[in-house]
Design goal:
The protein has 727 residues and is mainly β. It has 4 domains: 2-131, Ferric Hydroxamate Uptake Protein, Chain A, domain 1, CATH 2.170.130.30; 166-518, YVTN repeat-like/Quinoprotein amine dehydrogenase (Methylamine Dehydrogenase, Chain H, 7 Propeller), CATH 2.130.10.10; 542-598, Sandwich (Immunoglobulin-like), CATH 2.60.40.10; 605-690, Sandwich (Immunoglobulin-like), CATH 2.60.40.10. Strands 2-1-8-6-7 form a 5-stranded mixed sheet, covered by helices on one side. A 5-stranded mixed sheet has the order 9-37-38-39-40, with no helix packed on it. A hairpin with a 2-residue loop joins strand 11 (193-195) and strand 12. The relative contact order is 0.07.
């Protein structure tokens, strides 16, 4: 059989090497070919490659990986050995080539190598990193779930088998309601999975709170893109907190009664069931993943199960006293999961335990796998009460790399470009890649929230504060930039799902909500205004409600700032080129430029204070620079020499003189003048002093009196002399 496999493999390689491009008919006006890179773990990347004359599938592949920034290592010339570090590992994962069939609307395994595909004749090709279903019988892998029309599925609880909670393919900065639907079968506390233009939702069944008990079974419901129900399939009864898995044309749905159900993704028909035997409340709270054609999940009885695709058990292993909420992650032939004993466990694909790392009282977070380690949240308890918890990073050999305390009941960590974000019922905390806290944002709430969901530049959280709220934070700063209150009022215990530009949220009263994530680019209308005061300039851009824009200012003198508003004081007057760059999380940018002329508003010049008898006359000249705005008035200030000045008078701009007649003679005063323009007061002039003189004494009355007296005396004397002569 191995000889047959080798012969077949070599035949395919030779066919690829000698295939002639252009063997297939080309459409009239091809524009581009879509190239899918499917990493086999739920993560995908797409590139739309412009088609050029004579381009084949291998040319499109090399162009696509360059556009995506992924390293392509070929094998045998035009086969793929590795893309983005995911290397061929036969008989496990290999890179497989697919061609999109427009007629059937499905992927078909390529019957030729990439050089034999005329890029102008097909809509899309795909490279998938997947294991053969039966390498001995040469039965190939499952086709990718992503399609040209529905490019970015959400296949499992935390998006992928690395449990990142990150949809890196789409960035948004605006959120608008698309539709909502009441599924009328109890709480929806699990995460929606999406693929092929359909949404799959697990409803928990209607609760009789008087007893309490469930009156109806849990159900798996399939919705179309408009929110219409396509089919409903019943499961058992039990508290539903585990999310389903979309895999191999099936929905794998764990139930609170400890049974795993598999349904046909197209019809909803039941395919098989597997009973873990785990009972309790609930029997299963861990969500499944797919790895190397196996379905792997954990039950609350503390066992990790590996199932074949037909629902039969491959193996199970006991990992401790219980597993609650922690869902497995897989990489390089090893599974990672937390348990109720406070341990992170590593298990090989044959069910053998590799190592254990003790982190706290309980590990209920789902491990997130990154290049150099495993990041997972943990809890500490005193008795039955949680005391604190946090996020830890463990190397792939089980060595603790760092541990960061964040508060009580932290949820699973979500990967972002800025680090790892974890939420509890009061706050969201961003932990940098090195373990330091980057920011903490209070979000409020009545009890714990589900893990956050991230896309490029944004973090989405369902929090509970009287009702469910969908909130969006900027990943860089943690600032809340929009929120939606889910109606009708009820709690929301799940996590958002993002697929193809639509965000899905659920609530405890059985509603599903869909929001369009609009990629709003900055527009020229988002300009900026400038206001000046002396050497200080203030800048402002209009508020764009609900949008997450970043603003970067260059003031033209080597100084810079960020934010919607900014101010800057220049060191010298002059004309400066101010540049504003506005960007959104998708990387779209708008650059705006304006020149600003900065004036140095100077003081009135040449103030002179002339003392007179009982007055002081002030004269001055207008400032040499009015600050770029017309002067409207002058303010005159006076102080007794050595004392505090107070406003004496205000005169119009046309007046450059003022006479002070209110001073006390013999008192020395200090004067200064301030010019006022349309933006405010400028600097004060140099002070001048003056002492008003006493007014001269008016002796006119005295002199008149003396004259009158003298005249009277002379008159009297004359009369006396005349009388003497008469005698």
């Amino acid at each position: 059989m191995m000889r047959l496999k080798a012969v077949v493999s070599m035949s395919i390689m030779l066919l690829a090497l000698f295939a002639l491009p252009g063997a297939q008919a080309a459409p009239a006006s091809p524009q581009s070919i879509a190239v899918l890179i499917d990493f086999g773990n739920g993560q995908v990347s797409w590139a739309d490659v412009p088609v050029t004359s004579g381009m084949n599938g291998w040319n499109a592949t090399t162009n696509a990986t360059e556009m995506l920034g992924l390293q392509l290592v070929p094998a045998f010339g035009t086969f793929v050995h590795s893309i983005g570090g995911f290397a061929d590992a036969w008989p496990n994962e290999t890179w497989n080539l697919w061609v999109w069939n427009n007629v059937s609307g499905s992927w078909e395994a390529s019957m030729t190598g990439a050089t034999g595909i005329n890029a102008a004749s097909v809509e899309a090709i795909a490279w998938s990193y997947a294991a053969y279903i039966d390498p001995n019988m040469f039965i190939g892998p499952h086709a990718p779930i992503a399609t040209p029309d529905n490019r970015y599925p959400w296949q499992s609880y935390r998006h992928d088998s690395f449990n990142t909670g990150l949809q890196p393919s789409f960035a948004t900065n605006n959120m608008t309601a698309k539709w909502s639907a009441n599924l009328s079968n109890g709480a929806i506390d699990t995460q929606i999975v999406v693929g092929g233009g359909r949404e799959y939702v697990v409803t928990g069944g209607i609760m009789d709170f008087a007893n309490p008990s469930l009156d109806t079974n849990a159900s798996l419901i399939c919705l179309n893109a408009s929110g219409d129900i396509q089919w409903t399939s019943e499961m058992g009864r039990g508290y539903q907190v585990a999310s389903p898995l979309l895999y191999a044309g099936m929905l794998i749905a764990p139930c609170g009664n400890g049974v795993v159900y598999a349904f046909d993704a197209e019809t909803g028909a039941r395919v098989w069931t597997f009973d873990t035997g785990s009972r309790g409340f609930p029997g299963i709270s861990s969500s499944p993943i797919a790895y190397r054609n196996h379905i792997v999940l954990a039950a609350n009885n503390g066992k990790l199960y590996s199932l074949f695709e037909n629902g039969t058990q491959d193996w199970n292993v006991s990992l401790g006293s219980g597993i609650y909420s922690s869902s497995p992650a897989a990489k390089n032939g090893t599974f990672y999961i937390g348990n109720e004993d406070g341990q992170l466990k590593a298990i090989f694909t044959n069910g053998t335990i590799a190592w254990s790392a003790s982190l706290g009282s309980k590990v209920r977070g789902s491990p997130t796998l990154v290049t150099d380690g495993i990041v997972v949240s943990y809890l500490n308890y005193t008795g039955t009460s949680p005391t604190n918890g946090g996020v830890a990073k463990v190397a792939y050999n089980g060595t603790l790399m760092w541990r960061t305390v964040t508060g009580q009941t932290p949820g699973s960590a979500t990967l972002t470009a800025n680090g790892f974000v974890s939420v509890n019922y009061t706050a969201a905390t961003m932990i940098g890649l090195g373990g330091g806290v980057a920011w903490t944002t209070a979000i409020g709430g009545d009890f714990s929230n589900g893990p956050p969901t991230a896309i490029s530049g944004s973090i989405f959280i369902l929090r509970n504060d009287g009702s469910g709220h969908l909130i969006a934070l900027g990943a860089k700063t943690g600032a809340i930039y929009t929120q939606k209150v889910l109606a009708p009022v009820n709690y929301a215990l799940g996590s958002p799902t993002i697929s193809d530009g639509v965000l899905y949220a659920t609530s405890d009263n059985g509603w599903v909500y869909a929001f369009n994530l609009n990629d709003v680019a900055p527009s020229p209308s988002t300009g900026f205004t400038i206001s000046m005061h002396n050497l200080m300039a203030s800048f402002e851009t209009p508020v764009s409600t609900g949008n997450l824009f970043q603003y970067s200012w260059d003031f033209g003198d080597s100084a810079s700032a960020s934010g919607r508003t900014a101010s800057h004081t220049y060191s010298a007057p002059g004309t400066y080129a101010v540049n504003l760059t506005i960007s959104n999380p998708a990387g779209q940018t708008l650059r705006l430029a304006q020149s600003v002329t900065v004036h140095d508003f100077t003081a009135p010049r040449g103030l002179v204070a002339l003392a007179g008898q009982g007055e002081v006359t002030l004269n001055w000249t207008a400032p040499s620079d009015n600050g770029g705005v017309s002067i409207v008035s002058y303010k005159i200030y006076r102080a007794v020499q050595g004392g505090e000045a107070s406003l004496l008078a205000t005169v119009l701009a046309s007046n450059l003189t003022y006479v002070d007649t209110t001073g006390v003679a013999g008192t020395t005063y200090s004067y200064y003048v301030v010019a006022v323009n349309g933006q405010g007061a400028g600097p004060a002039s140099a002070a001048q002093t003056a002492t008003p003189q006493a007014a001269p004494v008016d002796n006119t009355v005295l002199y008149v009196g003396i004259v009158i007296v003298v005249l009277a005396i002379l008159g009297a004397a004359a009369i006396f002399v005349m009388r003497g002569r008469k005698k």
